[in-house]
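Batch 3, record 17
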Amino acid sequence: MFAGMPKDIVCMWFARLPSDRVLRMRAMDVPFVLSLREQNAERIYCLNRTAERVGLQRGMALADARSFCPDLVVHPARPDLDRRFLAALRRWATRYCPWVSRDGVDGLVLDVTGAVHLWGDLAAMLADMQAHAARAGLGLHLGHGATRGAAWARAHYGATPQATLEDLDVAGLRVPASVVVGLQRLGLRRIGDLEKAPRGPLARRFGAELMMRLDQVMDRHPEPVTPEQEPPHFGVRLTLPEPVGLCGDVMAALARLLATLCQKLKAHEAGARVIVVQLRRVDQASQQITLRLAAPMRDAARMLPLFEREVTGIDAGFGIDQIRLEAAVVEPLAHQQLGSAAATRTPDRLSDLITRIGTRIGLENVQRIVPADSHIPERSFQILPAAFSPPESAARGTHPRPLVMFDPEPLNPTAMVVAGPGQTNTGGACAPVDGADAGQGPRISGQAAGAADSPPVVAAGPARLIRPAPPERFRWRRMVFHTGRAIGPERIAPQWWDHCEGWQGGMRDYWRVETREGRRLWLFYTPQNPDWFVQGEFL
Amino acid sequence: MRDMTMFPLRAGRVHEVCGPSAIGFAAVAAAQTASGVLYIRERWHTEQIHPSGLGAILPPERVLLARPANHTDALAVAEEALKDGVLPFVIIGISQPLNLREGRRLQLAAKAGGTTGLCLIAQNMGSNAAETRWRASPVFDRAYADSTLMRWEIIKNKSGTNGAWHVRWDAERHCMHVVCPAPE
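Prediction for the assembled complex:
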């Protein structure tokens, strides 16, 4: 119907792509399946021929499959890796023709029109494809036709790449399974049957799509093969006629390369996050500089000084004659309105500073304090790399927290004098108790509100209610302290659902102790494992 | 003598502070600037700044931490940051005494960037290049609980006299009160 040169389309179908991808690395001749969680159960995602022979099939629940075949080898499916693998196969297929596109998750479509003679004839080309796939350990079904639909039908349902189209199953028309079942009920099992049947009633019953698919197979309706665009490659290189060894020369070469790279990045509205420079020397050794940036960037003038420190540390040997620059990690970076406002420049300057510091001490060692959702003091905040986490402001809690926190340090028990018998309170609150002499003894003021409204404070059984006041005199870091005033306690229970480092001692009663010597310490007592510790210091 | 002429710390210079409340002094001094703060401390220090405790003085999101591996890296990072000027206040944890060259380089970097540097030093570890040296220690407050009373003492001053004050940080109003000049 469409005049012009007849097309040659080849469809490649990798029937067991996911399992072949795993098994080509380690061949095994036992039943093997890949499982994926679907519809709330582990199901078979893909399986090898041995597994099919013992009666397993795709979509079967894994528990059933194991009962069929106890020595089944199961691996988790990785659809993301399968997609990447298919993308690699697409690149491989461009050796046959430039027009290659992916077809579904396990197929490729090649428009080989005008490329067949390079292999002699079509049969030789198809044989070459089969041979390559077999060598790579992949099961390949090929189909050839004048249309994409015909090639697809032959690859999936034909015995040979050039099987007679009319004899193929109607499922080869790429129509939904419900339509296939409907057609089979009407007795239309082959494409040839469908071709002979009147179109009108079929279109009314199954919709226009069925007829469109049929026309696509029969070359009455066009269906192009759209080649996929190669992803942009952000790499540039420079080969020098004479080797260079001076820092200034290398920097000048880098400046040229960076200008080209940044133009490319700008065209794709992207910014580099990691830049790798490879310096090849005349003695074939090569040195590598990796620059990690605190923010995506494509400004050559700002990027160039960041290389200076690393370039000075390079051993040039007898000279460097090839320089390769690649943006290894790229992030989208939209075009920005240029302005004179200082506010827009400050984040740039800050990320430049973070990058410069990061090249010296490692980008992950420039950090930011980010609040976290936990009542455990050690876990109520996180220290995260500043380059990868935006600043977050925390709501200030109602409970006092020290300025400086360290790992719990035990008080020296030998030099400790306990104030007296432990207080016993009910209801979780601690009533103020005055010492015998207000001027000399420790004063304990209660923190009733704090104990009542916070979830971590647990009103526990009678055995756990003993809350002794902090010792009157104690020794910490070889210094002797006298308790002047103690505020607390604030009881914090460990997270029972989560193992927490250092909380083996059970719950803690925290006290703010103002010592007569001046220092204001954050003490805690572990009632389940009676002992006192210092964990922080207040302003 | 009643008002502290040397506080807020003079910009474009590097100062030093020692004593048990050195970090508190640094936080209060950093709160006098409206912009970001860089706190450089070597990686082996396990002490952490608690953001809730710090939040009473200055918002923790303004603080950037740098964890260099050794003392040389710490000084290099400090010089870089002081020279850059995008973070106007740089706190440097010093673990070895600075020689005159290192101290002077920090001073020149601070002058170039117009930034304030503050070294947290141990007792008697000061550098001759420092503009001022302070000693900050907490004081037990007999009158009020929950107090933040401290004694701040200038023990070295290149452009003025020494002195000592009792100060208190007001967490509600985010300001500092000089309670009284402390007795010598």
